[in-house]
Specification:
The protein has 27 helices and twelve strands. α2 packs parallel to α4.
Length: 730
Amino acid sequence: MRYLLIFFLSSLICFGQKTKQEAIDSIDFYIKYADIQKLNNNYKLAISYSQKAIKYAEKSKDLNGQARGLGNLGSIFLDLKKYNDAKESLTKSITKLKQLPVSSSLAINYYKMGLCFMNTEDYTTAEEYFNKSKEIYDNLKIDNNDLLNLQIGILYKKKGKIEEAASLFNSIISRGSASENQSTKAEALYNLGTIELKNGRSNLAINYLNRAMSLTNKNSLEQRIKIFNSLSTAYDKLMKIDKAYFFLKKHNQLKDSLASLNSKRLGAEDYYSFKESERMDVFEQMSKENEAQQKTNKFAKLISILAIALISILSLLSLSLYKNNIIRSQSNQLLKEKNLELQIAKEKAEKASQARAEFLSTVSHELRTPLNAINGITHLLLEENPKPNQLHYLNSLKFSGNYLLTFINEILEINRIESNSVEIEYINFDIKKQLIDIQNSLKELATNNNNEFIVEIDENIPNHLISDPTKLSQIFMNLINNALKFTKNGEVKVIAKEVSRDEKSSTLNFQIIDIGIGIAKEKQSTIFDSFSQGSIEINRKYGGTGLGLAIVKKLVDMLGGTITLESELGIGTVFTFEVKMEHGCDNAEEIQEIKKQSEYSDEVLKGKHVLIVEDNKINQMITKKMIENKGMTSRIIDNGEIAIEIIKNDNIFDLVLMDVHLPGINGTIATQQIREFDEKTPIIALTAISLNENREMLLSFGMTDVITKPFEPETFYKVIAQTLEETSNS
């Protein structure tokens, strides 16, 4: 009985050990424990368990298990920033997964490969892997767009595609607030913050960065380090030194903590031991393969003897091909060097062009604020019945202000066209009426130079066509102005005729003919270049920016037309351009609406109370005076923060005039915050608009309309009147 009991207990112990061994010795077990060790920051054991999973899968010939183990090992190396090792493991995993039905595991590995190439700054290859991952997720109908869009957005940002990047980041932060999405949204907000910081909008950048920080997990040290660093930079640019120093200190503290944590993850000796173990495994595998190879060598010897004979025959042919290849390689190498030189030259030219555009945009933008003061004060003085001996000086000042405004507008216009910020509008209009209106508006200029100004219009031209009348007007005004300016005691003729027509469209030919000073042959090839004129003497005598013809050429190109020039010194000049336009219709309602929009009544303005948000003292005085001249009352404040509080607590205003560039929070952010509690009060933006601003961008913050500085009084009053009338009717 005693021996029977011992036998029973022994059997039970053995059976229990076997069951336990079977439960532990599995792929799922090893991968699970590898992940646990990663969470515990013990990367040495994480690597060990991943290796065990791979070996177990190889032993059991489990292809999916091998792929999982290799993918897990690749993830570990990615965390450790061992990108070459990560690529090697992930490549092996992908190779095995391609032999199996398509699964999310393959998409995950493509995504991790993309991260590896991102960190090694190979952005083109990274984008290819992200696209492969997205394609698989889409086919499997798995929504993982936020994670992929984040990385693609970062890629676009690295490549300088800022608008595309910002669009993807905004799509991420606009989605739901699931907990697993918080880190992704935080990273998107951080990247939006750095974009705004680079664009010089520090307040907006701080807004994004603070939102990113609120979503960041406290364990995400790398993410928090980046955010603290950017916050420090943003506050430094705003000259808020205390806050800049506070976040810089936070940044350095976390950076030290992360460095300490990384040093504990996997020591140099542990990594060397792993690589040595891996090398020994490879050596062992190679030894087995060599044994198998030796068995086939005997058969290979016979084949080798036969191959030698064949090789001897082919060697003669190869020698000839070798010489040809050397010549070809040398030619290819020379071609590569030339291509590289051309690429470097192209990049330098693009950088120079960008620097020029940014400089001109900044200069034109900064000149608008003082020019608004000059034009505004001149207008006010002319309205106050100046003395006759002062009138000449004021008119001269007004002329100089308008001349400088034209110069600035042309700089901004050429920059907008070159940066592809100008879009073509297709509107139904009467081109015959447009030409007659232009003739009437330029009669005074023609009379000043004792010129006869003739407009000849082909009767066959349809009354209504579809194109962009604003851009056509720019083209006509520039060309006719030049003709009238450079001709004295002569004749300027505009001829418009239809040269071809089909069922839907007509091709029109326009000629602007003068008998003025003409253009020298050697200057005609560059006359359409920016800042180009016939000569320095012409510039001094007649004035001008040298931008008018450059704008004309680019606008004609945008309209799909062509422009040519014929000229001879002392004889005159003929500019000819052709544009194809679709046929329009006589839309009386549209014409009436346009006419209605151009009119306003002073009665709409009287008695209205206006809040003026403006920090410039001169502009405050001008705007207040112009408001009061129309029977309105006003209150002036000089920053956005106070504007928000006043409108929130005591809104007695019919209208707000909001300067965009204010100290503290700018006008766009102030408007955005006001719209959170007040959607009705009309807010009109006052801005010295720059290349990076446009009407649509300002309206997106909640602005009702936009007035550009320096503004013409008539335009100023018309926009205010129309805004007040629309508000009262809504």
